[in-house]
Design a protein that fits this description.
643 residues; six-stranded mixed β-sheet
Amino acid sequence: MKKKDRQPKQYTRLTHPLVRDSNGTLRQATWDEALERAAAGFRRATDTYGPDAFAMLSCARATNEMNYVAQKFTRVVMGTNNVDSCNRTCHAPSVAGLSAAFGSGGGTSSYEEVEHADLILMWGSNARLAHPIFFHHVLKGIRNGARMYAVDPRRTSTAEWAEGWLGLNVGTDIPLAHAMGREIIHAGLVNRSFVERATTGFTEYAGLVEPWTLSAAEKVTGVPAAAIRELAHAYATAERAQLCWTLGITEHHNGTDNVRALINLSLLTGHVGRYGAGVQPLRGQNNVQGGGDMGAIPNKLPGFQDILDPAARGKFERTWETVIPPRYGMTLTAMFEAMESRELRAVYCIGENPAQSEADSEQAMRRLAALDHLVVQDIFLTKTAQMADVVLPATAAWAETDGTTTNSERRVQRVRAAVKPPGEAREDIDIICALAERLGHDWKFADSESVWNELRSLSPDHYGMTYDRLEEHQGLQWPCPDTDRLPSSFLHARLWETDPERRGPAAPFGLVAHDPPVDLTDEDYPLRLTTGRRLDSYNTGVQSGSFASPLRRGEYIELCPEDAAAYGVEVGEEVRVSSRRGAVTAPVWVDPGLRPGLAFMTMHFPDEVDTNQLTIEANCPIAGTAEFKASAIRIEKLVPAWT
C-alpha cells in the first residue's frame, strides 16, 4: 500500500493582527482595533464573572523578561494567579519533586559535571535525540571513563551507548527504584553518615521498599533481577553519579511520585550536593526552566517565592502597588477543566498551542471552543490561534528579541535580536504593556534590561546577574545573590555541612507507592502506546515543519518485528490505531528497539496524525501533568477501498 505524504503542515508567519468578524472568519485588523478588542473581552469577562474568570498561558520558548511581564499582567492587571505554561505538560513533576526534597525546583548539577562523573544513569530519557546538546556532555563523560546505564522501555539510540540497558515495563519505575533502594540497604551500601546527617524518613523508607525484592521487582518490571542488582551496586559504589531523567518519568499520572522515587536513590547514596554527583531533569524547551523561575506558574512568585508567604507577597505588592490574592491559581490542567465548567471565560495564550499539545486533543479543542474570549499571541497561525477571537503577531524569541533564557542547568544566558521582525509583528512585552495600558496600567519599560532589573530587585536568586555579568561570563547559574561572587555550579552543598545551622532543612525521603498506568491494556486494547520525540522535529511541528530535514520520515506507529509479524503488517502499510478516546490512521514502522506489546509514536505531526487523540488525560494530582506515556491501543488493518 502506498504510503501517504506525512510531512508536517507548513505554517505561514503572522505579520498582521487578526480579529474574528461577526461571520466567524478571521480578518486583518489594525493594532488599535485588535488591542481594543482583546482588552474589551478581558474586561467584560472579569467585570461579569470576577478576576478568576481569566487565565494566562505563558510561553516556555519566550524570554525570561516576557514571562516576568506576563505573570505580572496576570496578577496586577487581571487580579488573579491563574498563570501557567507548558511546564505543566512536561516537567512540573520534576519541579514538585525537587522542591519537596530540597526546597528548590531546579536540577542540582551543571552540564559540565556529567563529563567528570563516574556513573551516568539515564532514566526515561532518550537524550541522544531529545537533548542532543546535553548528550554531547554525556559522550565526553563516557570518553573520560564513566559507565552509563539506561532505564527505558525502548532500547533507544541513547541506550545503544550504555553499558547496561534495563528495559522495564511502562509505568513500573517506582518498583524498579524501590528494588534498587532495598538492594543498596541490604548490601550495606547506604551512605550512613549522609543519611543520618542530611535526611529524614529513612526508617520509614526502608520499611516501604522491603517488599520489593529483586525477584518481586523482576515480575512487575520485566527487568532481570541480576540487572537490577548490577545497577544498584554500580550506582551506590560510584564516587560521583549523575541521575538524569526526562518525560519518561514525568508524563505519568503519578509523575511526581516517580521523581521522588529517583531522588530517594540519591539521598540513600549521598549522590547530591557534591561536584559531579547530582540529579538532573533535562528540560526540553529553551526556557521552560526560566518560565517557572519568573513566576509564570500559579503557586510561585518570581524566584520561586511562595504566594502563601505573606512576607514574599508583601515585597511584590509594595513594588507593584497592588494586592496579590493569597491563594494559588489554576494549573493548566485545572484551567481546561474550568473551561468546560464555564468557570473560566477568557484566556490570553502566548506562544503555546494547547489545541494540539494537550492529552486527549479532541477534548482540549472542545473546551477551548467553549471560551467567551480567546486571545492568542504567536508567530504562526497555529491550530489554537485559528480558534481565537483576536490574534496578535509577535516576534521570534530566538532571533528577533533581546532578553535572557534559562536552561536545564539553571544557567541564565543572554539572547539578542539578530533580524527585524516581519510586517507589523511586535515585541511580546510591548504587546502586553499595550494591553495593560488599555486596562488602566501605564507600564514603561525602556528595554528588556529594565524588565530584568525589576526582576533582580525582587528575586534574591537572580540579584547578582546583571546583563554585564551575564555577557562577561557567558551566562550564570542561579542562585546568584551577589554581584561580586560567582555562583557554585551545583546545589545543596549545605547538606554536607556538619553545623546544623549551616546545613539547614533536612531532605526527606519520599514515601511513594507503585500505582500502575490508568489506561489498562486488555483484549480490546492489547498494546501499550508510549510517546516521545525525534531529533528532526519539535513539539507539535509548528516551527520545525517549515524546515526540511533529511532525517524526517513523518509519523508512524512503530512496532517491534514480532508484533508486526503477528498483525501481518509491513513497513509503510496504513493501519487504524485506536484508543478508548479516539482513532487515527498511520503507516507502520518496525523498530527492533521495541519489545512485544509496546508501540511508539510522537506528537510532531498532529495535522497529519494527531497522536494526542489517543492519549489519556489522567493527571498527576500534585503536578497536574497528564499520562502521555501510557495509553492502551489496538491496531487494525485497513480494508482496501476496492474490496
